[in-house]
Specification:
Helices cover 42% and strands 20% of the residues.
């Protein structure tokens, strides 16, 4: 069992982060925040997929104004992503935002940060110090030390600004597109502060490569007990980010939501179209939220025996298959009838 790092707890809307709270999964809208209808539609879709926090890009005053209406209708807490202009952060707080993300390297003067902190403190708004390897302060960027150390140095500098203003509702992220740099930065930070940590490999890439980078980076840290909330950054639909996030957490038994799907690789013993079968079962159960373990196995060797821990499973035969439940075979069917019968059984017994 993974022993999680001890951290302080903050709360964003109704979501607790840190300490013994479940590791939350978040994403970011890719709509124009000023387009309230489209943005709200995407927020609702994200919430339905399991997303627990959603971040909004606040590029201009009109986007900050839209926060007021979005907040009225959003089913999950909203976080404002602020770059360059501290006045946008102030406007978002005034319009009811649940939390802020600020990149200290580009927010401007320290006095601007102090103004944001003062208002956030008055309104009980947590702040994420978002360090990005590509936008460090110039004087830190010039230092002849490893990049991970520069990122931690930058974060600690801004933590001090917040602490000097008696503000401790802090969350920290240290993201790089390089997996090793990301891992090392979080490891270093985890030793220096007890604030909750937001994990992510930034600019991870498109679907396939991005998920692998994120699984390696986030998975390594989570397995070490580091991390309190995660975002998988993909050049893809935000819905896919949420699905990937839960898959990473499920693989480490840190969260249970939806199907835990297992299937064996094909081999010379397989005499059923296993790839097609597995893909179809997984697709038809992707929106099934009950935490069941489902197995699709290629033959009797890997069927009810090796997958006996599964709640439900299919084991392939010669152009046919067996449906089993907790290791016990309950039906034998032709290949073309397997999926429909299998899905119907799961739904019938788990309404």
């Amino acid at each position: 069992m993974i022993q999680r790092r001890k951290s302080k707890q903050i709360q964003i809307g109704n979501v607790k982060i840190g300490a013994d709270a479940p590791i939350s999964v978040q994403s970011m809208t890719n709509t124009d925040t000023r387009d309230i209808k489209s943005t709200l539609k995407q927020i609702n879709n994200l919430a339905e997929s399991g997303c627990e926090l959603v971040r909004l890009a606040i590029l201009n005053p009109e986007a900050a104004d839209a926060v007021k209406e979005l907040k009225k209708h959003s089913p999950i807490p909203l976080i404002a992503d602020i770059h360059f202009d501290y006045r946008l952060a102030i406007k978002c707080i005034e319009n009811g935002i649940d939390a802020l993300r600020i990149n200290p390297g580009n927010i401007g003067k320290e006095e601007h940060t102090k103004k944001v902190v003062a208002l956030a403190k008055t309104n009980n708004i947590p702040i994420r110090i978002g360090i990005n390897a590509g936008s460090l302060e110039k004087e830190i960027e010039k230092l002849d030390i490893p990049l991970a150390e520069k990122m931690v140095m930058s974060a600690l500098r801004h933590v001090k600004i917040l602490e000097d203003n008696n503000f401790d509702k802090i969350k920290i992220s240290l993201k790089s597109s390089d997996v090793n740099t990301t891992i090392e930065a979080y490891r270093l930070m985890a030793q220096k502060v007890d604030y909750p940590l937001h994990l992510g490999v930034t600019e991870a890439g498109t679907y396939y490569g991005g998920i692998i980078k994120s699984a390696v980076g986030l998975g390594t840290l989570l397995a070490e007990g580091i991390g309190d909330t995660i975002r998988v950054s993909l050049t893809e639909s935000p819905i896919e980010e949420v699905k990937a996030g839960f898959q990473i957490l499920k693989s480490l038994n840190l969260r249970q939501r939806g199907i835990n799907f297992i299937s064996c690789p094909t081999c010379g013993r397989t005499q059923i179209n296993l790839i097609k079968l597995a893909k179809e079962v997984e697709k038809r159960l992707e929106d099934f939220n009950k935490p069941l373990t489902i197995a699709v196995m290629g033959c009797a060797v890997n069927g009810p025996g090796e997958a006996k821990h599964a709640d439900y499973g299919i084991a392939g035969g010669i152009n046919e298959g067996y449906i089993f439940k907790k290791g016990e075979i309950i039906k034998k069917l032709p290949e073309e009838k397997l999926v429909d019968e299998f899905i119907n059984l799961i739904h019938l017994e788990n309404i």
